[in-house]
Amino acid sequence: SLSDNKEVGRVEYWRKEKALTNLDYAVEEMIDFNDRFISYILQPLKSFEEKNTSLVLSKQFFPVFQVDKLLELHTKLKHDFEMVPYDYTLIGPIFESLKKEWLVYCQIATKTKNAIDFYVYQVMDNQEVQKIIEDMETKAQAKESKNFHSIKDIVQMITSYALRWPLVLEAVKKTARREQYKQKVEQSAQRAYNTMTGVFKHMDQVATDYSDCQSLETFLREVSNLPLNFEFNQFGRLQKELSGIDFCQGTTGIDFQKCDLLIFEECIVVVELETKYQYVPSTFLRGNFKRVQLPSEGRVFKNAFELQSIDEIRVVPIGEDACIYVYKYKNA
């Protein structure tokens, strides 16, 4: 509107009239950082989404990045930033007021890797999708050659851009600390910094939880011979997975077998590695089949042991390896 343009004009005039300090430059960088994200990442991604004619990308790729919600969030931030040159203490309240909106990054972060893997697979194996993407990117590059980014690059930069917000706000906080009479500005920037670090700490936790759930679902599909109604999540969070471990149960210390150890918060699950075979038609005798060993190994549930019931763990070095003895254990 006309009144809004007048306000922006006053801000620009005010900037020119006063001598800029380091704090002014830090605040200006914060405002420009949001503008660049809108111009170089969100708007091009929205353009690609609108011009895309691939049904598979429309349903399984672009929705993951929720570009409409991100544009709404960062456009609102851009609007709120217009008053910041008048009063730097508004920085904290602005970020706090948008705390719920920032949580959209949690949803995006959990699915970004799978979405990019899906995209790469489609580009390699689906000629129709490949041609659609090439046409869109060629036209976009011809229109904006200087700041052009491919679709894959753009979606990879979404979370990396977002994770830089605490650094941008920390710069404002530090420069305010060095200047006289700017304690309230420093406190406001600290509030904004705390808000964003809290959001991204939550994002990391959500992404970790999602990854753990994906791993447990994979275990349920891959591991055979599981007890009835067995659930991996009953043992707490998965802490670590050790592959190709020589494992033996008993007192003799012989008959070791290759196993994987799934170490949870409350127990250790042992899965035995099993050679997998497939019967294929013989190339010499028609109607006959031959057994062929597959490159991947099967996984068979062997046992689970409660960590709390273990009485003693002793580590004995053997050359470059180590033998771990566990005494007085209890099956989970």
Extract low-pLDDT stretches.
13-17
Strand order of the largest sheet: 1-5-4-3-2
Tell me how many strands there are.
7
Strand-residue proportion: 15-25%
Q: How many whole angstroms does the radius of gyration measure?
A: 28 Å
Helix-strand topology string: HHHHHHHHHHHEEEEEEE
- Helices and strands: which structural class? alpha+beta
Helical residue percent band: 55-70%
How many individual helices? 11
Question: Which oligomerization state do the chains in this entry correspond to?
Answer: single chain
Overall body shape: flat
Please describe the biggest sheet, giving its number of strands, its sense, and whether it closes into a barrel.
Answer: 5 strands, mixed
Distance separating the two termini: 68 Å
Mean pLDDT comes to 82
Describe the structure.
This protein is of the alpha+beta class and 332 residues long. It is built from 11 helices and 7 strands. It has helices at residues 2-17, 22-51, 55-60, 67-81, 91-97, 99-102, 104-125, 127-143, 151-162, 165-178, 183-222; strands spanning 223-224, 238-247, 257-264, 267-281, 289-306, 312-318, 321-327.
Structure summarized in a few sentences:
The protein is an alpha+beta fold. The protein has helices at residues 2-17, 22-51, 55-60, 67-81, 91-97, 99-102, 104-125, 127-143, 151-162, 165-178, 183-222, and strands at residues 223-224, 238-247, 257-264, 267-281, 289-306, 312-318, 321-327.
